[in-house]
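Async update (no meeting this week)

Hi team, since we skipped the sync, here's where things stand on the single-chain job. The sequence we agreed to prioritize is pasted below, unchanged from the tracker. I ran it this morning and attached the output directly underneath so nobody has to dig for it. Comments welcome in thread, and please keep replies under the output.
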Amino acid sequence: MTEHVGTHMDAPSHFNKVGWNMHQIPINKMVGPGVIVNVKEKARNNPDYRISINDIKEWEEKYGKIPDGAMLIMNSGWDAKYPDKNSVYGTKNISDLSSFHHPGWHEDTISWIISNRHILFIGTDAPSFDYGQSTTFPVHILTSRENISGLENVANLDRIPPSGSIISAAGMKTVEGSGGPLRLYAMVPNSGANNSAVIIGTSNVLLIVIGLTLLTKLQD
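Output:
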């Protein structure tokens, strides 16, 4: 089975031989408060944009400190480019990896987050949370060392608020898997969200369930 395609998660073992494989990630490490950092305008002006520490501090000035156990995800607007592979990877030659241009996270930002906050996942609506021109993948390496899992090709981030959602990223329990496709979704308190969302009732609150997954066709 193809592991790293469409909306999927990276297990820490993807870049760390002693990191958790898919079957080893505790289920309580696959759900947490959503933190959505909007850099759409910056990414529109610079496809190689990388989220900075200032972007994180600006988010916290508006919404408060990033909560423990957060699912920290970049919203660059990149999901609008799917399914055109050339647009997604920002290139005219999809076979030339050195020509890729898409936004990601800056390694200095990730180092700061690891030192100062406690997150479960790092994520992006682009193909990788390392930016397109990366050849050493420092964000993957830094996060995998801390058993922080990753989310790539996330969709529909405009439909959930920057703060206040709960995101579930329960991946398949594949033995020794380094990642895998998943049905990613967010639960948001009902406050007049898009009518196409699914409303579910709980004992004390109405929640909107919003899918964050691209429609993907797997290769045989």
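Quick observations from my side:
The longest strand covers residues 31-38.
Residues 192-206 have pLDDT under 50 and may be disordered.
Reply here if anything looks off.
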